[in-house]
Design brief:
Structural class: mainly alpha
CATH architecture of the largest domain: Orthogonal Bundle
CATH class of the largest domain: Mainly Alpha
CATH superfamily of the largest domain: MetI-like
Keywords: Cell membrane, Membrane, Sugar transport, Transmembrane, Transmembrane helix, Transport
Protein name: Maltose/maltodextrin transport system permease protein MalG
Largest sheet: 2 strands, antiparallel
GO biological process, one term: transmembrane transport
Strand content: under 5%
Function: Part of the ABC transporter complex MalEFGK involved in maltose/maltodextrin import. Probably responsible for the translocation of the substrate across the membrane.
Radius of gyration: 24 Å
Shape: globular
InterPro entries: BP-dep_ABC_trans_perm, MetI-like, MetI-like_sf
Strand order of the largest sheet: 1-2
CATH topology of the largest domain: MetI-like fold
Mean pLDDT: 82
Number of strands: 2
């Protein structure tokens, strides 16, 4: 009997080892470009163009000084943060309300409407650039924060609806019914009960939407010229007729990572916490 138990434990340890090896390989695959970008941002110019990979060198802040001295890059960075944050908040507010409605209320052809909302993101972005450009031009919105915020928010609302709809569906209805019996209004149930229980999904969705907004390129390229350009456009501008400025490009990319890293640091607990587990008890 003991030999059988030992064999089972050995198989479990072996399978667990392969699982961890798979995790490590996936982690290396996704982290390598980020680590290489950060390393390149600290490399002197003569090492950046070396044909051999160099991992150990004396760090230099030349690339960061050059980026910071170019005030337009910092301006574009500021534009990216403001536009992405406001667009994310708008998408979260309206998308969350819509998601809760789809998950709780009896709406005629609810599934068809939900699928239609998601299908709006199936259209390639480039196909709608010209109509949106003409509309923005007629309303005087070209090269403004407003047009990018409205576009990013409207394009991301379908994602919020579908992601948060799943989280709301996992919350037992009995909790909401008990709150209503105690005299809580419908909006009070949503605000005081549902949202706190779905905070993990809400934060995860916000991160996803923020990353999509801050990385968007095509609409920022077409609809802005000087005042409202975003950092991805500034990074693309480092590809010049004299060559690609790899050091400055990697430094700008690393600067773009800073708000994301700070954001993740503050919300890490919410991302990994299952607040709905055992809620019915």
């Amino acid at each position: 009997m003991s030999s059988i138990v030992k064999k089972i434990n050995a198989k479990k340890r072996s399978s667990n080892a392969w699982v961890w090896i798979g995790y490590i390989l996936i982690l290396i695959f996704f982290l390598t470009p980020i680590v290489w970008t950060i390393l390149t941002s600290f490399k002197p110019q003569d090492l950046i163009h070396s044909t051999k990979p160099i991992f150990f060198f004396k760090p230099s802040l030349f690339n960061y000084r050059d980026v910071i001295q170019n005030s337009y890059i910092l301006k574009f960075f500021y534009n990216s943060i403001i536009i992405s944050t406001v667009a994310c908040l708008i998408a979260i507010v309206f998308g969350t309300l819509a998601a809760y409605s789809f998950s709780r209320f009896k709406i005629k052809k609810r599934e068809d409407i939900a699928f239609w909302i998601l299908s709006t993101r199936m259209l390639p972005a480039i196909a709608s650039v010209i109509p949106i450009y003409l509309i923005a031009s007629n309303f005087g919105l070209l090269d403004t924060y407003t047009i990018l915020i409205l576009l990013y928010a409207s394009f991301n609302i379908p994602y919020v609806v579908w992601i948060m709809r799943g989280f709301f569906a996992d919350i037992p209805r009995e909790i909401e019914e008990a709150a209503q019996v105690d005299g809580c209004s419908l909006f009070g149930v949503f605000w005081k009960i549902v949202l706190p229980l779905s905070i993990a999904g809400l934060v995860s969705t916000a991160v996803f939407i923020f990353v999509l907004s801050i990385n968007e390129f095509i609409f920022a390229l077409i609809l802005t010229s000087i005042k409202s350009k975003t950092l991805p456009l500034a990074i693309a501008a480092l590809i010049t007729d004299r060559g690609i400025q790899w050091g400055q490009m990697c430094a700008s990319g690393t600067i773009l990572l800073i708000p994301l890293i700070i954001f993740y640091a503050f919300i890490q607990k919410q991302l990994v916490r299952g607040l709905t587990f055992g809620a019915i008890k």
